[in-house]
Amino acid sequence: MVNKTELKPATFVGSSLRDLRELPRSARREAGFQLDKIQQGEDPADWKPMETVGSGACGIRVRDESGAFRLIICREISGSGLRAPRVSEKDAENGKDGLSSRQGSI
Predict the structure, then answer these.
(1) Domain for residue 100, yes or no?
(2) For 34, how many CA atoms within 13 A lie in the half-sphere containing its CB?
(3) What is the domain extent for residue 70?
(4) In 4, 33, 59, 62, which residue has its Cα 20 to 30 A from 95's Cα atom?
(5) Cα 104 to Cα 93: distance, rounded to the nearest angstrom
(6) What is the CATH number of the domain that holds 20?
């Protein structure tokens, strides 16, 4: 585990920080907690690898009473940080979140 003083830096790409800030409060808090875990070198609680997005990419699932959300995180190849290129709300009907429309920004 990385010492709290040695947190890996996080870089938000495109509108991802704004999108994260627009999540409902409880989902935003949970997302922040999961990002902190990654910055400390730990795995998030509910995630899956997303190799179709890119090497080192993972989708973090966050749920609250208003719905389900996904954060796409790319761990830097050098291990020195992480990028958060995508935050989205999952579509309750089909379980998709429209990732393909913004994969180019990763």
Answers:
(1) no
(2) 23
(3) 8-92
(4) 33
(5) 25
(6) 3.30.2310.20
Q: What length is written for the chain? A: 106
d(CA 68, CA 58): 16
Q: Are strands 82-89 and 47-49 parallel, antiparallel or unpaired?
A: unpaired
Residue with tokens 């010492």: 3
13-35 pLDDT per residue, tens: 888 899 999 999 999 999 999 99
> Where does the chain show beta strands of DSSP type E?
10-12, 47-49, 57-64, 67-75, 82-89
The pTM of the full predicted model, rounded to 2 decimals, is: 0.73
Structure confidence by residue, pLDDT tens digits, 44-75 = 999 999 888 878 888 999 998 888 999 888 87
Fill in the DSSP letter of residue 2: -
Give the residue from 30, 28, 16, 33 showing the smallest Cα distance to 74: 16
Catalogue the long-range contacts made by 97-104 (C-beta closer than 8 Å, 24 or more residues apart). 97/70, 99/53, 99/70, 99/72, 102/14, 103/53
